[in-house]
Amino acid sequence: MIPQKPRTIIVARNTVWNLIAKGTDFVGNLAASILIARVLGVEGFGQFSFVVAFATIFSMGMDWGLDHIFVREISRREGDGRLEFGAVLGLKFLFLLALMPILIAANQGLALTEGVRTTVYLAAAGIMIFRVGFTRIAEGVFLARDSLGQKALTTIFYQVVRLLGVACVLWSGGNLITLFAVLLAADLFQALVVGIWIHRCHILVTIRFPKEDVRFFFLKRCRWVFPYSSMALTYSRTF
User: Fold this and answer.
1) CA nearest 71: which of 171, 212, 236, 198?
2) How confident is the model over 21-33, as a mean pLDDT?
C-alpha cells in the first residue's frame, strides 16, 4: 500500500501552485494592458476594455455554478469523470445557444462601428467558447485530482503566448480586429493544452457526447431557442 501524504501538505502545495497561477494571470494581464494602453492610446484602450467587458458579462450566463458542481461530482464519485465532463460541457453550450441571440441583438443594437462589432464577436468566441466553455471545465479536473501544478503550468504557457501575440500585433501596427484575433488564438491554444493534458494524465476527454445526452440537451431542451433566436435577430435588424 502506497502511503498517502497528509492533507495539510497537499493543501499547502496546491495553495502555492494556485498562487503561482493567480500571480501569473495578474502579471500577464497587467503587462498586456500596459502595452495596449501605451501603443493604442486612451481611445484604443477604452475600446479594448469595452469589448472585453461586453463579452465577459455574457460569459457569466454560461456558469451558474457548474464548475463547482463538476469539481464536487468527479471528486466524490467513482470513475474517471467522463460522463460528468460531457454533461457539464453540454450544459454550458446549451446556455451558449441561449445567450447567442441576446448577444447578437445587443451588439447590433448599440451604436458601434463595424470594426468594434467584429471584435465583440471575436472576444465572445474566445472567452465564451474556449475559456469559459472548455478551459474552466478542464481546470476543474486538475482541482478535483489535486494537481493544481498542471493548472499553473498551463496558465504560464497561456500568458506567455498571449503576451507575445499582443506584442507582435501592436509592434507590427495591427488594429483591434487583429489584436482580438490573436487573443482568440491564445484562448484556443490554452484550451488545446489543457485538453491534451487531462486526456493524457487524468480522463479520456472527447468532444463527442453520448447519443442520449445529445438528444436530451440539443433536441428536447433547445426547441425554444430557435424561434427565440429569430425574434431577437428581427428586433436587432428593426432597431
Assistant:
1) 198
2) 92
- Would you say residue 183 lies in a domain? yes
For residue 24, give its domain range: 9-226
In a domain, 207, yes or no: yes
For residue 233, tell me if it sits in a domain: no
Overall domain count for the chain: 1
| Residue 167 forms part of a structural domain | yes
**DSSP secondary structure of the chain:** -PPPPPHHHHHHHHHHHHHHHHHHHHHHHHHHHHHHHHHHHHHHHHHHHHHHHHHHHHHGGGTTTHHHHHHHHHHHSSS-SHHHHHHHHHHHHHHHHHHHHHHHHHHHHS---HHHHHHHHHHHIIIIIIIIIIIHHHHHHHHHTT-HHHHHHHHHHHHHHHHHHHHHHHHTT--HHHHHHHHHHHHHHHHHHHHHHHHHHT----SPPPHHHHHIIIIISSTTHHHHHHHHHHHHHH-
- Answer whether residue 174 shows pLDDT above 80: no
What confidence tier does 140 reach under pLDDT thresholds 50, 70, 90? confident
